[in-house]
Amino acid sequence: xxSIVPSSLSLVSVLSxxxxxIQVLAAVLLTHRxxxxxxxxxxxxxxxxxxxxxxHLTLEGxxxxxxxxxxxxxSEGPLAELWREYGKADSRWLVxxxxxxxxxxxxxxxxxxxxxxxxxxILRDKYYRHFLQITLSVCELYGGWMTFCPDWLIxxxxxxxxxxxxxxxxxxxxxxVWVLVPVLLLVQxxxxxxxxxxxxxDHDINxxxxxx
Length: 212
Hints:
Blueprint: H1 11-34, H2 40-69, H3 78-87, H4 98-123, H5 129-153, H6 164-211
Domain EXPERA: 41-186
InterPro entries: EBP (IPR007905), EXPERA (IPR033118)
GO cellular component, one term: endoplasmic reticulum
């Protein structure tokens, strides 16, 4: 079984994980600042949404830019170093792979917009909240599927699974979060919409009884 040996943790690896921690902290602070009046469940959802937007705009946005003007491999700067580190796990991110860049353009533009609108809908208790929540979750799941399925179908030649850090942290954990949370949000929307339907049905029955 592969393990994450100390030699796998380069300075860039540590700084990349630290950057992710700072993003989580920023999401926590935004949730505390704007979501104090929300329910506990909605505060957890807001935490995820703030983190989702931060990642899309501060990490994936620069990736799209670097890929449109060149490649991650030939770019310079801290974010290029961070993406080159992730590219050790999935080499497609180094060379402006058209499929990856296409998915990321949609992610940065559409998913970020949907997440911001969903944050507003939750904070303002808008009627379209679950429409946005379901749409965003499906988009995130579709993006994840189309990121990895094409490579799986040809034997995963671009994925480095021989190293524990790259496999379990970069590939499984960081991508798995964008599978697990959208699925949980879909389940939450399902139960919320079902409850609304039950309330509406009971209300209609009560009105019908009064009219008899």
